[in-house]
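Think of the structure tokens as a kind of shorthand, similar to the way a musician reads notation: each symbol stands for something richer, in this case the local conformation of the backbone. In the example below we present two proteins back to back. Begin with the first one, reading the sequence and then the tokens, and try to describe in your own words what changes along the chain.
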Amino acid sequence: MILLLLILQLPSLRSGSESTPSTVNHSTQLLNRHGAKRVPFQFDPYEEGLYYTRLDQSLRQVMLNARNWTQMSTLSNIDSIRAHNIKLGRMQQPVPTSSSFPCDLSQTRSPQPPSDISRLRPGDIDIVAAFGDSTNAGTGIMALGFWDLMVEYRGFAYTGGGIESWRTVLTLPNILKLYNPNLYGFAVAHSLSADIKRSRFNVAEPMLYLLDLPFQVHVLIDRLRRDPKVNMAEHWKLLSIHVGPNDICSELCYWTDLEAFLRIEERQLYETFRLLRDNVPRLLINFIIQPDIDDELHLISKMPADCTTRASFFCNCHDKYKEDRFYNVAKRFLDMQKSIASLPEFQRDDFAVVTHGILRNLSTLWSRNGILDKRLMANDCVHYSQLGHAVLAKLLWNNMLDQTDFTLTEAWRHPFEHFLCPNAERQFLRTIGDRF
């Protein structure tokens, strides 16, 4: 399919030189705003910077068409796919209508919108957004084979999906909808990010690196400003960012200058928070910190044999961490994220970056009796199943109210066990990050 689409694009690639101006679509405008430069294609690397070529633009359209075709053809069988995932134990157990939500839903929205972020209640959130990598895009959540691994079940994503309700699909937006029925911005269907009407403010993309975050900021800001339902000055907004695994799994080991890798990653993360602070007022950021490299390697070691090959495909750098130079940089990569997120300049009355270490106990949380619990994982053993996303939604929600105690590992595997609620002692959402 991809080859056919590429062949169809060849005439347009041959029809003009690099000097011929091409149609400037919205993506190109955002790239230019991001500071990326269009340059002629060449095999030799350019100097450090952001570049794209005409070939990149054409291949983007080819890949977008291929992904959309796969998405639509797979979702035409969604009922059968869901039934199979239920049999595999990868879907959460539905909560009957005779059971109430675990928390009291009264008095959880302020009479007047607060002016101080430290007084923010769950019901005060008007707009919810998400960006980052394939986890927030919902990639592969219900995949059954190879060809549907890249299908994006965005409506199930724990940070930015809002399909159905908490009874069948526990996500952070489906929790927050109970406190504010007018909540807006979550994905309302399984779609690609480019499908704005369905993805809304969940702009996550598969295979995205931390390096790419500033561009996603421009995409999100553009969507917020264009949407008539958003009051940029008055609405309180919640953005959840899940990113980092691809940088460690499939990027770092190909760098020869490891200090340059860290320097660029640090610059891009700082620029991400700066752009958000300066352009999106009344914003609370959930920054999900990725697990330590030791925990990631420990989790891979617990995978059953049928998962090892698949994990190696998605995380082809993991063998490199036997070398001290790569291992040490991976450690520093984690420390860098925590350091940038905790800078005082990213904490003010209408803006806060809150670090969440909900993945810090990854190898214990996702395994049982020393073996990876495949019910919590998608078919590729790398992405999370719908049950896994429901567990993550519970963990993030709890951590937004109070720093999580990860010693209760068995309780964490069940979406509604040890489910925290706002109360007199914790009325407001946390604005100070985790203690690591």
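Once you have a description of the first chain, move to the second and do the same.
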Amino acid sequence: MTTTSTHQRQHPPSSTATDPPCPLSPLHNLPIPPLTQLPPHLRYRPNPSTGQTVVLGIEGSANKVGVGVLSYDPSTQTYRTLSNPRKTYIPPSGCGFLPKETAWHHQHHVVALVRCALNEAYPGCDRPEENISAVAFTLGPGMGGPLRSCAVAARTLSLMWNVPLISVNHCIAHIEMGRVATAASDPVVLYVSGGNTQVIAYSDGRYRIFGETIDIAVGNCLDRFARAVGLSNDPSPGYNIELEARKHGVAGVGPLKFVEWPYVVKGMDRKCNDNGGNDGDDDARDNNGIEAREHFTVADLCYSLQETIFAMLVEITERTMAHCGQNSVLIVGGVGCNLRLQHMMADMVRDRGGTLCAMDHRYCIDNGAMIAQAGIFGLQYGSEDMRIKMEDTRCTQRFRTDQVEVVWRPRTRGSHA
């Protein structure tokens, strides 16, 4: 079993772009069509002096707002993240993030993030925006207010700089950023975040969903549980659950108690809440009639919840691998940087002689570079759906992964659709 991860190198502390260029060839995408082969309305403007295509991406579908600048160098056939700053809205402990307050947060920070991203990508340049070939933004899925706030910023920049506007599906952006960062050509994808939980494989021009949650997403489940047991939202509820669960076997703590949680896998789908329809927070107080707070520590509960949920995810991912005949797994989304999930998935993949492709928080968590990555694919390959007109830039909270035609990949895997 081989584990592929993003590379690291030394950069100044202020740098938000820490990876070397990523080659195009391992992805096995279609050849990038020359500009002359694209219809006139789908053509774009590479940098006239360097020949590079550069896209600025804006992400703001949930509580993080990020701006990334990403380039493609035709001389080396590589993609490179030039900058990737972001800001996170952290609500008070015990509270979730609401659309209105989150939208205000994004509106407050997005302009400064654009300036920061451009200045880092092109230090010392008086007019860095002249290097930009297009502006990409998250069309959906996500929270309405935050999505609209970032869409307004993207529209404004597109008009100011006279460059095309590229709409991006948030889920596709996670997948393509992961493929590029880990050089994974055709993996089974486990997408786990606050708002989405899906097991995905590519087939016949689209990313097909083979399994998903039938109640709430894993990230949402972890967030709600963290609030119920009094964990902080800083830096994130899920990460604080992970820290509590890591106490298992630590010197001075010893093994944590395992609390049996409902383990519900229905076909290819999984379910977090199986307590008769009550709010998920009740699980923290009453599990099969046991007063959890009296008999178990918070660390016990966090450890048990993680083990149960992640076991369900590994099971349906392995089933998808078997069905599709694949031997590699890519984990994306904010929950994907959880080290325990990565270790459990690695054990399964190792048994199958496969490859695990995993990333850290820089690219798993929502960021602008992933929007730029999917956006530059849509721009270069002339996607009619993604090259959007200004009047069609209405964000949508419901935008399925399999609604997007993936024009940059060959339509060769149709047997398991």
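Compare your description with these statements about the second chain. The longest strand covers residues 64-73.
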